[in-house]
């Protein structure tokens, strides 16, 4: 239960000094272009770049060990599922067929399939270092002010700030309720069967939800007393101005995105096809 | 002098979005119930999301779903945007009917339970069996049979989650409200 969400770790690197808005825009832009592109060279280049940035953010292996294992596990599972469901999908996509193993059966191994799955792997991992950098170098309060700066209404930005603020509180409440219900003798562990576990989930969820509804009333009254939402604009205590490094980062992001789009033209579509 | 604003989200909705998203995030992380079939969990967050959407409306429903799912995916490194978006749509669509269900009015009887469940089953199936896999094919170009099977499995499990947990929460909540029209002038 000790997994911390925004493992914000205040350090003194240039990535920590960037404004949250810059990091958010760069992350969104790169993750969207990486989502669309199927050019292995392009994806590999972004992956290498984000690994270099990762190094520069002074993030230690201990901080990301658990997450990395999770990601590896799910990626491998997904890659296997893709293969089991569609061993010939690469052939279908790339239009050629270079057989490595097998010939007539359902499970054949082709270069095209391997290449397609390599592309998928790159897509699964390409944004991971960026997301972790984003999580670990961005102060949550500053992040909310950045959302407002990039054009989201300040009320919604404030909701995001509240969500980040209350995750640890709701988490400890969840944990307390779970312990209390176990002390009363309800089985919530893996030993219980499906029906018992569903009931168990309800036994935690119902108190949690009603406690949270009370919390919503308390917090919103406090905000109302401080006249939240009265004006169209608000200022942010943690707000930060853009510096030269912010503009340079955004410029680099835009250039990478333009490169990605240019590659669509060069490759005649989203897929880079080395088999042709 | 700044202009005053009276439009937009109410303060209570702003707070509900924040805390709702925090709860969706936590339920996605800790509140999954394994069904016994490997890798298939009943995700209790959808029941909760449907409940909050019915209480606070479509905008709140969309943002709570989108934000909660996005934060959860972000900590795994790769937001799977198509599914994040679909979770938001699910919350938004359920939220569209909040005036009709009128849970605050303290009345959530058999008729409303039935129509809530018809609505949620249809929304879940359209969202997970049609929308999310189709977006996956368009955006991520994954094999169709894999994503549609994933979609069918999650559609069914999310409908169970919403049907059981969403209904229970709505009934209990409505019972805790004062019934509309329960006071009479003497």
Automatic annotation (TrEMBL), chain A:
This is Energy-coupling factor transporter transmembrane protein EcfT. GO terms for cellular component: plasma membrane. It is found in: Membrane. The keyword Transmembrane helix applies. It is a multi-pass membrane protein. It holds the Pfam family CbiQ. The chain crosses the membrane at residues 24-54, 66-85, 121-138, 247-266. Keywords: Membrane, Transmembrane, Transmembrane helix. CDD domains: EcfT. The keyword Transmembrane applies.
From TrEMBL, chain B:
Belongs to the UPF0397 family. The chain crosses the membrane at residues 6-27, 48-68, 80-98, 118-140, 152-175. InterPro entries: ECF_substrate-spec-like, UPF0397. It comes from Lacticaseibacillus thailandensis DSM 22698 = JCM 13996. Its main location: membrane. Pfam families: ECF-ribofla_trS. This is UPF0397 protein FD19_GL001645. Keywords: Cell membrane, Membrane, Transmembrane, Transmembrane helix. GO terms for cellular component: plasma membrane. It is found in: Cell membrane.
């Amino acid at each position: 239960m000790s997994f911390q969400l925004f493992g914000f770790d205040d350090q003194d690197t240039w990535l920590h000094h960037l404004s949250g808005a810059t990091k958010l825009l760069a992350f969104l832009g790169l993750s969207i272009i990486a989502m669309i592109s199927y050019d292995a060279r392009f994806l590999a280049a972004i992956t290498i770049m984000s690994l270099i940035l990762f190094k520069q953010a002074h993030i230690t292996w201990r901080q990301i060990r658990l997450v990395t294992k999770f990601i590896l596990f799910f990626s491998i599972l997904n890659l296997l599922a893709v293969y089991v469901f569609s061993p010939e999908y690469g052939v279908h996509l790339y239009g050629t067929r270079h057989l490595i193993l097998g010939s007539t059966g359902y499970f054949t191994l082709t270069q095209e399939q391997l290449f397609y799955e390599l592309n998928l792997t790159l897509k699964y991992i390409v944004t991971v270092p960026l997301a972790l950098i984003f999580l670990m170098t961005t102060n949550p309060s500053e992040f909310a002010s950045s959302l407002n700066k990039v054009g989201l209404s300040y009320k919604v930005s404030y909701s995001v700030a509240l969500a980040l603020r209350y995750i640890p509180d709701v988490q400890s409440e969840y944990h307390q309720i779970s312990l209390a219900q176990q002390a009363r003798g309800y089985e919530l562990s893996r030993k219980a069967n499906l029906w018992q576990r569903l009931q168990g989930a309800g036994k935690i969820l119902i108190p949690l939800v009603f406690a949270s509804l009370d919390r919503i009333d308390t917090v919103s009254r406090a905000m109302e007393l401080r006249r939240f939402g009265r004006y169209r604009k608000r200022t942010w205590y943690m707000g930060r101005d853009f510096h030269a490094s912010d503009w340079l980062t955004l410029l680099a992001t835009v250039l990478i995105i333009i490169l990605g789009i240019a590659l669509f033209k060069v490759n005649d579509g989203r897929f880079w096809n080395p088999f042709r | 002098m700044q202009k005053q604003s009276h439009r937009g989200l109410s303060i209570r909705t702003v707070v509900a979005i924040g805390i709702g998203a925090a709860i969706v995030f936590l339920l996605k992380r800790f509140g999954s119930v394994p069904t016994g079939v490997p890798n298939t969990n009943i995700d209790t967050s959808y029941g909760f999301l449907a409940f909050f959407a019915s209480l606070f409306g479509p905008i709140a429903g969309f943002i709570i779903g989108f934000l909660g799912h996005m934060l959860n995916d972000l900590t795994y490194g790769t937001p799977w945007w198509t599914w994040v978006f679909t979770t938001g749509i699910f919350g938004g669509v359920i939220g569209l009917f909040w005036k009709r269900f009128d849970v605050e009015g303290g009345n959530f009887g058999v008729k409303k339970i039935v129509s809530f469940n018809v609505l949620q089953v249809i929304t879940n199936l359209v969202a997970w069996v049609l929308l999310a896999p189709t977006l996956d094919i368009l955006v991520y170009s994954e094999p169709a049979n894999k994503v549609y099977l994933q979609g069918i499995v999650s559609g069914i499990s999310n409908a169970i989650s919403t049907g059981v947990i969403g209904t229970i929460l709505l009934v209990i909540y409505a019972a805790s409200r004062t019934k509309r029209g329960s006071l009479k002038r003497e």
